Request: fold
Amino acid sequence: MFTTFDRYLLGRLLHTFAVFFLSAYGLYIVIDLFTNVEAFQNQSTSNIGLIWHILEYYAYRASEFFELAGPVLIVISVIVVLGLLQKHSETYPILAAGIPAFRLIRPLLIATAILNGCLIVNQEFIIPRIAVELQAPRGSNKAQVQRVEPVYDYWNYLMHIDGDQVLLQNQTLVGASFTLPKPEIASQICVLKAEKATFITETDQHRSGWLLQNMVGVLDTDLLTAEGRKRIIPCSNGKDVFIVSEVNFDQLYNRGRNLKLLSSMQLFQRIQNPSTGPLPVRGQSLALHARITRPLLCLLNIAIALPLVMRKETHSLIANMVVCAGVLSLLYVIAQGCFALGSIGQMSPDLAAWLPVILSGIVSTWTSDFVQT
Reply:
């Protein structure tokens, strides 16, 4: 049964989170805007255009900031709500009625689940859709050009893919360069250069790959091996070549390295098809596990916060909140340390992501006896 007091706590936590988020994001806007206001002025010809560019830029950044600061602000909001309940003695009537203190945790967990649901929607649907805008420079609504980050195509026997730059709006690799490996694809190392290349997604009629347009020079098919002829397909016009590959467009620039811009489904697909080698797969696996464990860590942190803020045999609310903040900060540092070890290969990705959950569960069980009765 969801009581009036439950609804009161739920609304209070959501309100507190909204206040903290708006305050933190507003502070970020003020600091960032005063530091980089010239970048907006250089791209604007009028005051109205300047205001529009500022509003548009920070509207997109709100989603990124929510993803970054949301989990921490949720836990801080819970600590503040519990602290205010203690300060105003709102918990004493409940405890006097024989209701256990852990009964208070239900509306807090529900509110936390709602906020984590918003975080999931933001990560899985909103951020991938605005990934290009999130990489746009200040004062511009599009990240038109990005520097190419060369990769090795492991599916094509370490074929090297490079270029001058990528155009994000039409997803084109300009000044494309594909180095065919020896002896798997070609009898000798050769480089295919083209004016531009476009990634073609897989369909029922053809495999995924790159269409090199306006080749620099002529492809000598006699250099291709039997396997190479299956993967390097000249077009009938004599100027274009299609190269079968699983390395897609966004793996050639920052979005491919910035995993927060990818949805979990995109991460899963890359893990299933490790075309760029084992090192990126480790980071992708760690990111995927971290997304699964993040809501669990948030819920466990709340289960830890309640008995520490409402500790029995102590009357100092400030001391309780300091101890709570210290314990949760220590768990946060341990979690970040595990993620760091997982990213450099000193710990498996699944262990790096789930060990903080295990430790938080142990601490939650240990602190459960501290709560007031």
User: Anything to note?
Assistant: Residues 150-252 form one domain.
